[in-house]
Write a structure and sequence with these properties.
The protein folds into two domains: 1-35, no CATH class; 46-177. The protein has one helix at 2-17, and strands spanning 46-49, 59-61, 68-70, 78-80, 84-88, 91-97, 104-111, 119-121, 129-131, 144-148, 154-159, 169-177. 9% of the residues lie in helices and 33% in strands. It is globular, with a radius of gyration of 22 Å. By secondary structure, it is mainly beta. Strand 8 and strand 9 (129-131) form a beta hairpin. The strands form two sheets. Strands 1, 2, 3, 4, 5, 6, 7, 10, 11 and 12 form a ten-stranded antiparallel sheet that branches. A two-stranded antiparallel ribbon has the order 8-9.
Length: 178
């Protein structure tokens, strides 16, 4: 909004004074000026829904590169405009599916890079997170795997078949916006 006000002010001054102003050139902005006035409202976490007590109720976090489940996940504000974005001020981390020839696909948070655009949230009361389903050839999938890594972290995968990462303890789960 401030940038728009400055642009209109410069245009008005050019009309009054007879000077020419390039409308494509934005006014100079002082260093360290924050241009984002977007306010994000804290939302409910994304939670694992599973019959396995080890992961049931754990929440998705975006504090690592690979999506994982923790006791207290991120609740700063998720967006579901085709992608899943976790907002930090003026930037987003987007949840993307990493392509693989295996039936389990790693889920990674990537800074300001929305690659996977076919996420959706189902209607209440379930509010299940689904990948795909946007075209006739793409099935909607709401099956995920939570697999325990070497340091005890539960990493998330989209599950499109029956493969599992070798040597890891994995449980089937669904993800739900609480």
């Amino acid at each position: 909004m401030r940038l728009l006000q400055l642009t209109f002010a410069a245009l008005f001054l050019s009309i009054v004074s007879g000077a020419t102003v390039d409308p494509g050139a934005p006014p100079a902005i002082p260093p360290h000026t924050i241009l984002c006035d977007i306010v994000q409202i804290g939302l409910a976490p994304i939670v694992a829904i599973s019959s396995h007590s080890a992961i049931n109720g754990l929440q998705v976090t975006d504090s690592t590169t690979q999506a994982s489940l923790v006791t207290n996940g991120f609740t700063g504000g998720y967006g579901f405009d085709g992608g899943i974005g976790a907002f930090f001020g003026c930037h987003s981390f987007y949840l993307n599916i990493i392509p693989s020839n295996k039936s389990y696909k790693q889920l990674f948070w990537q800074f300001d890079d929305r690659v996977t655009t076919m996420w959706s949230v189902g209607p209440s009361p379930t509010k299940l997170i689904t990948a795909g389903g946007g075209t006739k050839t793409t099935l909607a999938i709401s099956r995920f795997l939570a697999c325990q890594g070497a340091k005890g972290v539960w990493f998330l995968y989209l599950q499109t078949g029956t493969d599992r990462p070798p040597g890891e303890l994995c449980y089937d789960t669904q993800l739900q916006l609480k």
